[in-house]
Please model this.
Amino acid sequence: MAKTRVAILGGGVGALTTAHFLSDTDEKRARFDVTIYQMGWRLGGKGATGRDQWNRIQEHGLHVWFGFYNNAFKMLQDVFDVWKRSPDNTFQSWRDVLKPQRFTPIGMVLDGGKPAYWPLTWPVLGGEPGSANVMPTLPQAIASLVGVVRDVFENWDELSGLIVDGKLVHIDGRTVAPMPILPPDQQVLPAPLAIRFAEAIRGWKDREVRHLAQAEALVKGAAVTTAKDAAIAAHRLIRALADGAQDGPGPAAPPVEHFHDLMTLLRLIEAAAATLPSNHVARDLLAFVIPFAVGIIADFAIEKRTADSLDDLEFTDWLIRHGGDAEALRTCCSLRTCYDTFMQYKDGDYRQPNWGAGVAALSCVRMFATCRESVMWNMEAGMGEVIIAPVYQTLLQNGVKVKFFRRVEDIGLSDDRALVETVRLARQVDLADGGDDYQPLITVPLEDKKFLLAWPLEPLWDQIKDADKVQAALATNNSSLESHWCAWEPVGTETLQRGRDFDVAVLGISMGGFKSMNDQPTLAAELQAASPAFNAMTSNIGIIPTLSMQLWCGPDLQGLGWQPGQPAAVAGPEPWSIWAEMGQTLPYEFRPGETGAPKSVHYICGVWQTGLVARPTTDLAVPKAALDNVTDSAAEWLDAYMGNFWPKATVSGHGGVGFNWNVLYDPWNGTGRERLSHQIIRANVDPTETLPGSAAGSTKFRLRTDESGFYNLFLAGCWVRTGFNTSCIEATVMSGMQAARAISGTPLFISGENFLNGAPL
Model:
């Protein structure tokens, strides 16, 4: 029986996931012949990394994994189970490449405009990431949200600390605020609430309800004097309801009345919290978390809405609809953390947060209620090295072929416009040996005869024909073979023909790569002309450019003046609002004890508003203009803000305090700001490097993997309608799993694809 030939266009995470799930069993390997066609010399899409001449890892930005990445963790675990790696490879387990990161400071602005951080440390959570087979029930998810409200009060002392000028300090007005007191007439549970709750409890007496004793005590009239009492009561109530609904025969979910009771308690807490000083951390947290929890209860538990049905409303407007204070939310650091984490700003403008309420609610519930072991996980080295290289080698083991240096130019349709008939590829370079088997990985030697496999920052030129000519052309405008504005002309074209080269195609290219932004036709022009739905998707989903820098510093964190510990911070001063110290990568870049080696490395990134993303491919000035713009922005930001976090990295002059450029590690020994140009600055303006947005009103335009409008074309990427419709690794992996399932029938189970969207939870 002839195999089904599958052509996967693009080599990002969605494309690689599709290939993995089309080749992960003997049965599938016998059914499918899979080939990936990838522009340039490496895989990974926005997660691709490269090693420069000094062996430094260059990322597209900061990449972390979250503990709710059920499918992504499971796939990585499966890869490490079958990857035929050398025993001398330093990475032998998925736990070698991902480590918990629990310290995540949240930025805020003190009175007078001074930036500071709230030192948030997440608790150790239960379970192992990737092990969850089911999502929580809705009552269980609500219990997790109410648990956050309870934790605000049970960790009151921790909310009194701030990081100011790199030190953990206490600020008047934050530390001395007493626990909020409920009004005297509200310090006993309302009688209807207590009666209904008691009736529900009696119905569960013969079953094991873990919080039954506490719930019964509450019903018998326990006082709720403070906001803390009310928060504990609310949490006991929902836990009892959730446990009672789950244990043994009985109602599938608590009666609606009990959800109203829960909202009553939350409103009491909200009113009490409003008496806190306006700049108190607890007030900031509760200004977001309480209307969020109320909204989940009201829309999902009571009104039986789905996440997708809420997406025409913007997230902050949705919070206001559920009682949130508009002015408090406008300056709410906790809420801004959510927008920053998923980078949901219209056109990359940090002044215009825009996130569909449904996908935002779903994302935050997953963050609060479905993480395992740790909320966040850091990669030990570059993402291309710890994730993409093992996946790539496993794909080769499974018979998947990868054709590098193939840029998709056009997808052609059959005469009846029902099928993809051709795919025209630009062959960017020829190989020096005249063959087609490019070997992309390099070996990085480590201590004790260990090594890791990595991707180089540039193609391995000794494998490229006319390499000197290619390099000279690219140098004229600071571009690369991955660039939309590449200054090197392809050496030829190839046309893939349906029936000869492929039977099924997968469009796994980032949406920016085929979104119309000027008069130039895109690679998907025929698809857009033939399918109104496909055209509507590309027209109505925006893209978000980003910027990033990596700074290698001679001093460690203490030497820079930052004392609290290794941070992964968010909601800092815009536009460079996300900062993580990634010192765990240094042993994989520099040999221990190497003279003059840096002692810390910092990844700083954010969104970027720019019109350069829409410039045609003929405007070869874009790469340099973008880099110059972002470099200037980085220099201005470091001068203006870094002294607030690294007080030992400052110098006085010009009427103020500025950044001390000498703390930057510079192999070229530059002077002053010149040292910044020897760090890594990235303007992620290339359309394929941008993030697809999840703005209000955009979900309805997303297409599922099998909704391209063409019988043999499937879709994979974080722009696909997966049930988790926002940009992150997990959503991208889900899209690849769904594409593979549409083609092969498996995997049958994809964790979370129906979560909060109407199917059983």
